[in-house]
């Protein structure tokens, strides 16, 4: 895996990252640090990437467990050290998993497997941060209705 990060110019603190898969991601600094708030901060990108990594795992594991999963949101709340290096010191993941007749033990198992075995981002961050998890299951009882033509 590779990535190239390029500063966009002499003014401001905007950077463009081009990933090995050919995608471009913008990052910027806070206005008080010379940035213009045009894109997420680099550490926000790290947090978002970690959320994406674990959500991907949870969805995949639940699908393989033959669960009728319809949605998976994860909200990450973090704290960072006050002095440099301002590493993450605490990260809490809250999963909202939506589906039909989801088994709580399988949702819990999917989150645990992601945290302990599959999500390399959260496993790496665990070296500096205390990581906790919580979850809720939303039963998707929405039924598909057919529209009736108006008279």
TrEMBL record:
InterPro entries named in the record: KH_dom-like_a/b, OsmC/Ohr_fam, OsmC/Ohrsf
PANTHER family attached to this UniProt entry: PROTEIN YHFA (PTHR34352:SF1)
Protein name: OsmC family protein
């Amino acid at each position: 895996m590779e990535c190239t990060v390029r500063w966009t110019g002499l003014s401001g603190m905007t950077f463009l990252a081009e990933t090995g898969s050919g995608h471009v991601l913008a990052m910027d600094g806070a206005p008080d640090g010379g940035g213009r708030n045009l894109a997420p901060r680099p550490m926000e990108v790290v947090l978002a990437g970690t959320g994406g990594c674990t959500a991907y795992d949870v969805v995949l594991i639940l699908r393989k467990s033959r669960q009728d999963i319809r949605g998976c949101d994860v909200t990450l709340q973090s704290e960072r050290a006050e002095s440099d290096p301002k590493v993450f010191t605490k990260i809490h993941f809250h999963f909202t998993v939506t589906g039909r007749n989801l088994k709580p033990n399988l949702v819990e198992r999917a989150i645990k497997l992601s945290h302990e075995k599959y999500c390399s981002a959260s496993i790496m961050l665990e070296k500096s941060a205390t990581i906790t998890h919580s979850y809720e299951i939303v039963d998707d009882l929405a039924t598909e209705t057919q529209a009736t033509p108006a008279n």
